[in-house]
Amino acid sequence: MKFDPQKHHRRSIRLKGYNYAQPGAYFITICTYQRQCWFGDIRDGKMYLNQIGKIVAQEWIRSCQIRPSLQLDEWVIMPNHFHGIVIITDTNTNGNPVGAHRCAPLPTPKNQPLNQSVIPQRQSRSLSSFIAGFKSAVTIRINAIRQTSNPPIWQRNYYESIVRDPDSLNPVREYIINNPKMWTDDPENTHLDSNSQQFLIDLPF
Question: pLDDT tens digit string along 134-158?
Fold first, then answer.
């Protein structure tokens, strides 16, 4: 199936009951709060990171270093969002970690009353746990510099899709690599407002 960015990252297609901790490749997109362009700018089809964008890059690379079960594939930081391919590896196999996997149900808490709702917990070593840790690390570093927690850095949640086989992986890689060249036509391309401009000016870099 041809990679369609409108389908695969403009909305979440998270599969109900799918175990996002199992081995496989995942294409993820994370957007900034209110799509504000905080990470740099694009000139002549090339992304130029500012100091905030460099923090994002450093923490993305560091995320893999502290999580041996993860591999980072192609990724790109855009002015107001981030694209990346994350591969969760299976240390018990020697094969390609990319592939289609059957949906595995999430574990059900033991001794849970049938009429009592339970707040869902992130599964250890899952995709959501990894993204939460990455976003938190970036936010902590930036907030320490600007000495405030307002406005937030990231929008809530993220977008993801499962890369089901090696043939599907290359089109996603090409989309990520070419994303800066397509910025003028990107639906995420919004003009900097006064708040985002002031935010950049006030940072003591």
Answer: 999 999 999 998 888 888 999 988 9
